[in-house]
Design a protein that fits this description.
By secondary structure, the chain is mainly beta. It is 10% helix and 39% strand. It has 4 helices and 20 strands. The strands form 3 sheets. Strands 1, 2, 3, 4, 5, 6, 7, 8, 11, 12, 14 and 17 form a 12-stranded mixed β-sheet that branches. It has a 5-stranded mixed β-sheet with strand order 9-20-19-15-16, with no helix packed on it. A 3-stranded antiparallel β-sheet has the order 13-10-18. Strand 2 and strand 3 form a beta hairpin. The termini are far apart.
């Protein structure tokens, strides 16, 4: 199932995407997923995909992002493999949807892409065993962990400022509930050229371990997002990763879809 959140005229709805048609849901899918096996009821209202605007597929109370979670990315940065997930938070105010505009802050000297697989939590999770972690997952989507690299250097490695500007967490285009996260091809394109390419089997800490680990630290709420880390091809001080106003950036994940965004100057 592909779950979309969309705007039609002035109404915002959730729906199920089949081909180029969206069947509207009754309310939010998270309302019906508090217990395993719950399913949101569908209405008889059908919308054409071309006639609506896709929004970020959920409204997380928080995005828990994971740093340095691909082996080749650790090698690229010449740092040791971590012995536990390295996590940080991005605020809900950084979220935008596919086809939205990433605003390049006036104060920033360098803004980087970081294409990532994102996990959408379906029901409240606290101190979850790894074996049962996937029961708490609604599905998966694409996320771009946009990062202001100079701010990260200026803040002695603290990432809150560099990761938290408005528009710095594009997500979408939808939530896929059926895809397996264990060996997906993930690519980032900048102006049509491949700049990141990997498979999720290169993750140091897989999805089920991340859900278990993070839920042991904080309660995960329905709609919260775990962004699982970025592959090689970005994040080095003088290396690849930089974007500029006028660029088009895409995160494409096998079995899910394409998240496309446009870089614009801050007014």
């Amino acid at each position: 199932m592909k779950i979309v959140r969309f705007a039609s005229n002035r109404a915002i709805k959730y729906g199920m995407l089949r081909g180029d048609e969206i069947t509207a849901m009754e309310g939010s899918p998270f309302t019906y997923l508090r217990r395993p096996g719950g399913s949101p009821p569908l209405t008889d209202r059908i919308y054409s995909l071309k006639d609506v605007r896709l929004l970020a597929p959920c409204l997380p109370s928080k995005i828990v992002a994971v740093g340095l979670n691909y082996r080749k990315h650790a090698q690229e940065r010449n740092v040791p493999i971590p012995d536990h997930p390295l996590i940080f938070l991005k605020p809900s105010t950084s979220v935008i949807g596919t086809e939205g505009k990433i605003v390049y802050p006036r104060a920033s000297k360098r803004v980087d892409y970081e294409g990532e697989l994102a996990v959408v939590i379906g029901r409240k999770a606290k101190a979850i065993d790894r074996a049962g972690a996937k029961e708490y997952i609604l599905g998966y989507t694409c996320l771009n962990d946009v990062s202001a690299r100079q701010e990260m250097a200026d803040d002695a490695g603290q990432v809150s400022r560099s990761k938290s500007y408005d528009t710095f967490a594009p997500m979408g285009p939808w939530i896929d509930t059926d895809v397996s996260p264990d060996n997906l091809k993930i690519e980032t394109y900048l102006n049509g050229e491949v700049v990141q390419s990997a498979r999720t089997n290169d993750l140091i800490f897989p999805v089920d371990l991340l859900v278990s680990f993070i839920s042991s630290v904080m309660t995960l709420l329905p709609g919260d997002v775990i962004s699982t880390g970025t592959p090689s091809g970005t994040g080095t001080p003088e290396g690849p990763g930089a974007m500029k106003p006028g660029d088009v950036v895409e995160v494409r994940i096998e079995g899910i879809g394409t998240l496309r965004n446009y870089i614009v100057e801050e007014k």
